[in-house]
Amino acid sequence: MAEDKQDENGENGDGKGVRGTTKITFTKEQQAHIDKIIGDARVKAREKAKADHDAQTSKDKDAAEQAALVAKQQWQKLAEKHEARVKELEPLEAKAKAYEELIEGMLKDTIEKMGEGAKKAVEALPASMSAVEKLDWLNKNEELFQVKGDGVGTPKPAAKQTKTTKGKEKLYDKPFL
């Protein structure tokens, strides 16, 4: 058996790697582009890790401060801090309720515009979906609720017709479409 001699790069001198695979080489431009992509990814990961660390540090600091206040029985200061936070969030709650009502109205209007099929489809959606998600789903699937055809002789989906004979008794009680 012949023993392969390898250099520090894992090559045996014939341009092939340790396992007989051809070594891949890049041009300077390609390598610079790859280095840039990797560098950008590292920067983004570093920034995200720093933001996560800062958020966790802030939470830990608040928790430690609350524990210290409780330990010192400074209930008044803790209560004032919580009251300030509540006052800070109250306007946001009112805005959130207003937006929720607006979205509910938009959903209702969209369902009415699209017809009975849309109403049944939305009722069949999971109850865990918010009004925003349901409205988004309706908008993305609007074509499912449109009447297709050339428009000539195509009945409107909302119009229900019953056949009668000159104002006398109805021949059919059920609508036909």
Please tell me about this protein's structure.
The protein has four helices and no strands. With 177 residues, the protein is mostly helical. Among the domains are: 26-73; 91-143, no CATH class. It is flat and about 65 Å long. Mean pLDDT is 78; it is low at 163-172.
Q: Output the helix-strand order.
A: HHHH
Give the proportion of residues in helices: 55-70%
Work out the strand percent. Answer: under 5%
SS-derived structural category? mainly alpha
State the total count of DSSP E strands.
Answer: 0
Terminal CA distance reads 86 Å
Mind describing the biggest β-sheet? none
- Spans where pLDDT lies below 50 across 5 or more residues: 163-172
Task: Give the rounded overall mean pLDDT.
Answer: 78
Cα-atom radius of gyration = 34 Å
The outline comes out as flat
Quickly count the helices: 4
Identify the notable features of this structure and list them briefly.
single chain; 177 residues; mainly alpha; 4 helices
